[in-house]
Amino acid sequence: MKTSGGLGLRGETQSRTMTIAGIMSGTSADGIDVALVRIRRGSSRDDVPRLRLLAHVAVPYPAAVRKRILQMMNAREASVAEMSRLHWRLGQLYTEAVETALRQHPMRLDLIGCHGQTIYHQGIAQCYLGSDVACTWQMGEASVVAARLGVPVVSDFRPADLAAGGQGAPLVPLLDYVAFHDAKRNRVLQNLGGIGNLTMIPADARQRDVFAFDTGPANMVIDAIMTEGFGKKYDAGGTMAARGRVLDAVVERCLRQRFFQAAPPKSAGREEFGREFVAGFLAQCRKQSKRPEDAVATATALTARSIGLAWKHFVGPALGHATTDYIVAGGGVKNLTLMKMIGEELAGFGKIRVKTSDDFGMPAAAKEAMAFALLAYQTWHGLPGNVPRATGAKRAVILGKITHD
Ligand SMILES: Nc1ncnc2c1ncn2[C@@H]1O[C@H](COP(=O)(O)OP(=O)(O)O)[C@@H](O)[C@H]1O
Ligand SMILES: [Mg+2]
């Protein structure tokens, strides 16, 4: 979208401070996070916005919805009618999630930022029907949300970055910069959702110095093996991984794959680490061990070592020897075996302090939803939301589409 002169559609002064609901549902397809956030911009145009989290509410997807989403992601064939229905049904579920949040924490919203559910993402162009095409698709009809809640909605954040030559991901780095940049300390933000992503903010960095990329699977492979082996959605607390033995040869073989070796920018999803990857991974594990807990431990180690590898090749060399805060968020924070393995991986790289975003006053489960509240605020004011060094875009662009109530 285009706006003139960077002014907000409803007048810059009028909407300088806004109460915004950020709605996020990630690749884990575990459910919907709603963050209610107050955002205001500093006095000068260069000042970064200031955010205050008012409340966070997590609403799990109904089991049948989650099953359908997982089936549809990356499906070779899907019915057009069913895709359309799911798109509209998700619009209802996002609305209901915000209603739940507002019942618990009554307040008046000025704006909503709704990421939607990624159903397909291919950040790098491939030849299709005679031309190179990159594409991304987030489901969840914003008109439903805007009409039922009577609040304008910004949605569809990724396509503008893709169209500007970026991979459309990751989009959290702006929030990482705004909330965590520090004059004296290097900061690395790690998200452990379905996929792992990392944002690097050197001490005293400007926004243009921020660098980010996906590290590989975080919980996605662990979750899939827990479902297949134990009929569970995830490895609660990491207890299953703690009981298993890591099959080193499997991890090493996986890490030789192109994705892990490739230099950033890079982004991943179920297209890389979904059903097919898990089938191959399990087949390799089973050659060495019949115990499913060993496969869970091995998947957990894959996440930790992929982060270690990313540090060795891309993060460590850029940050040098100064002390670095490594700040983790996302559902994976609750997997204590994963957190322990990551700590051990990074111990070899010098002065790194492993923390969670909660240690900095930002609940780990709320962070991504907060990011989409911030991106909605940017869009409303005609300001860019992508960080070109993170996505690979040629320029900073205004993200998303506005649906008026
Ligand atoms: N108590 C827990 N113990 C271990 N892992 C957990 C726990 N709670 C959540 N998780 C993991 O976190 C994932 C959800 O994290 P989230 O940040 O919402 O990811 P996404 O953004 O991909 O939806 C779950 O799929 C699960 O793997
Ligand atoms: Mg989630």
> What sequence of helices (H) and strands (E) makes up the elements?
EEEHHEEHEHHEEEHHHHHHHEHEHHE
What is the second-level CATH architecture of the largest domain? 2-Layer Sandwich
Q: What would you call the structural class?
A: alpha/beta
Strand percentage: 15-25%
- Count of beta strands: 12
Model description:
This protein starts with 16 loop residues before the first strand and ends with a strand. It has 2 domains: 17-169 and 364-403, ATPase, nucleotide binding domain (Nucleotidyltransferase, domain 5, 2-Layer Sandwich), CATH 3.30.420.40; 174-360, ATPase, nucleotide binding domain (Nucleotidyltransferase, domain 5, 2-Layer Sandwich), CATH 3.30.420. 40% of the residues lie in helices and 23% in strands. The protein is built from 15 helices and 12 strands. By secondary structure, it is an alpha/beta fold. The strands form 2 sheets. Strands 1, 2, 3, 4, 5, 6 and 12 form a 7-stranded mixed sheet that branches. It is globular. The chain has helices at 63-72, 80-104, 142-149, 158-163, 173-180, 220-230, 239-243, 248-255, 258-261, 270-273, 275-288, 292-319, 336-347, 367-380, 388-391, and strands at residues 17-25, 31-40, 50-60, 111-128, 131-139, 153-155, 186-192, 195-201, 211-217, 324-329, 352-356, 401-403. The longest helix is centred in the C-terminal third of the chain and has 28 residues, at 292-319. Strand 1 and strand 2 (31-40) form a beta hairpin. The model is unreliable at 1-14 (pLDDT under 50). The structure holds adenosine-5'-diphosphate and magnesium ion. Magnesium ion binds next to strand 2.
